[in-house]
Prior knowledge:
35% of the residues lie in helices and 28% in strands. The protein has 88 residues and is an alpha+beta fold. A five-stranded antiparallel beta sheet has the order 1-2-3-4-5, with helices on one face.
Amino acid sequence: MPLISQFYGILIRMFYNDQEQHHLPHFHAVYGEFSGSFTLEGDIITGNIPKKQQKLIAAWATIHQEELEALWKTIQETGEYFKIKGLE
């Protein structure tokens, strides 16, 4: 699962061909022992990420919405990916 971004100790990854798990475009976030799946808009689907980190992830997803949509399409079609800048 490629690492597509990283910020404030949060790792953001996107699986290749992961449409069966949640049936919608999404990414995965890991923060220490916590993890979750998020829509490309930044809404949590499943997981136990603390609220503070959920807000950071949502802000990041909002800023990079178009890039996330392009990445989802690219990674599902070709398996290739690109990095997305983290929060600063």
